[in-house]
Design a protein that fits this description.
Layout (H helix, E strand, L loop, with lengths): L1 E9 L4 E8 L17 E8 L3 H12 L10 H6 L5 E2 L12
Antiparallel strand pairs: 1-2, 1-4, 2-3
Length: 97
Amino acid sequence: MIDVTGVVINEEANEVVITGVDLDSIWIFKDEPSEDAECTEVSYKFNISLAGARKYLYLVTKNNKKASGFKYMNQRLEALIGQTIHLSSNFLVKDEA
């Protein structure tokens, strides 16, 4: 689960980058995290030139009550800011490093 802090839509590069705080990161090592446990920042990049990635992002926004109220995809994605969502890694862009 991530708490979305930002969405960047780059239509020239056919990318959508969703950034947020990984809420699951505090549970990795212990069943009961300490009071001062910190969550890590994560970034998910999607290649929207692929039909599967576009459909997945549509389904993510469709299943979000706040985002589903908007007509256009850019507005739907930006409505995810401040929401807690789960993103699958199936459609993420793989880094070529």
